[in-house]
């Protein structure tokens, strides 16, 4: 880790650990390898303490388990993202995923199911995107195209 620290000094970087579920032997080994046993480095197994940040370096850790993220970056560096409360964000993500140009409001069946779709997403953007992509496959091409290409009864 010390060698990585030296390589990243005076550089801009972005390191992303996505969907971390646990701190395993690999991470603990990485964090303890090559670190001096004294001073600033002693006993620090957190990314926020061992990587340089002076030139714009950043680390992003995403996890469904708060205690894992806290161990990696510390409580003071946590940014908690709450589910979408009113569902409007999820509806917009859903419409962008299910139709070209986000035109689900023009689709009577989808419009009538808006409340149910938003409720099923549970405020989670990934759920909205996934549901939209699944439903997109079940709509005909005419139903998912731009309004000028739609056939109106």
Offer a few descriptive terms:
153 residues; 2 domains; two-stranded parallel sheet; 9 helices; 44% helix; 5% strand; elongated; disordered C terminus; NB-ARC domain; P-loop_NTPase; Apaf_helical; Disease_R_plants
Protein model, in words:
The chain is built from 9 helices and 2 strands. Residues 146-153 have low confidence and may be disordered. The radius of gyration is 23 Å and the shape is elongated. The protein has 2 domains: 2-77, no CATH class; 88-149, no CATH class. The termini are far apart. With 153 residues, it is mainly alpha-helical. Strands 1-2 form a two-stranded parallel ribbon. The protein has helices at 2-8, 25-32, 47-50, 66-73, 88-98, 108-112, 114-121, 125-136, 141-144; strands spanning 14-17, 58-61.
